[in-house]
């Protein structure tokens, strides 16, 4: 059975929550949302999921569908308490990200007079300093993977280290998933490393689409294949409308 690029991306995102335990999954984007649901239904049953507003769901509805069973109430103040105590693993997006994992979602250009205004800093600094954080980037390019971000929103390893123990104590960037591969920071200087390639992608393609020098191991594995059960869950239970392919079309 042919596996699409979008489905490999779902697997890559789902793996961010492997062995996460009983924490709140906060996926941002269609593919991460499918990935979190897949993880909950397979290898991470302890994950907590929300309806995107203020309810914890006991079931795992399809993307875009309403939950059938609500098991808890999670208003904003309680959500912030989970963030501050590290009981959450968020997967955010990034308009820019650099080799140390510094992320920008605020503006392009000088922050005092930006060329383009984006989302704003939002909760990115608190997320990255208090709970595990991963990133999902559906369009891997040199415009996103940059040498230096225009403004730091999510805190990377170099800036956390410069800020000292209060910043590094709970700082953990798990991994970065894109439409080309998976990346982490498992290097001596905590810079980005190519962890796996999605099938059909080459190391050269990734290097050409990245605006800084990646750490590239001598042998780079491919992102793992979804199991038959995982494929069935993705296609028939979690995303029967095929929303994943709108975010990651076939190359």
Task: Describe it.
The chain has one domain: Glutaconate Coenzyme A-transferase. Helix 1 (5-14) crosses helix 2 (30-41). It is globular. A hairpin with a 2-residue loop joins strand 11 and strand 12 (181-184). It is 28% helix and 18% strand. With 251 residues, the protein is an alpha/beta fold. The protein contains nine helices and 13 strands. The longest helix is centred in the N-terminal third of the chain and has 12 residues, at 30-41. The strands form four sheets. It has a six-stranded mixed beta sheet with strand order 1-5-10-11-12-13, with helices on both faces. The protein has a three-stranded antiparallel beta sheet with strand order 2-3-4. The chain starts with a helix and ends with a helix.
- What is the C-alpha radius of gyration, as a whole number of Å? 18 Å
User: What is the approximate shape?
Assistant: globular
Sequence of strands across the biggest β-sheet? 1-5-10-11-12-13
Low-confidence stretches: none
CATH topology-level fold name? Glutaconate Coenzyme A-transferase
Helices and strands, in order, run as HEHEEEHEEEEEHEHHEEEHHH
Strand content: 15-25%
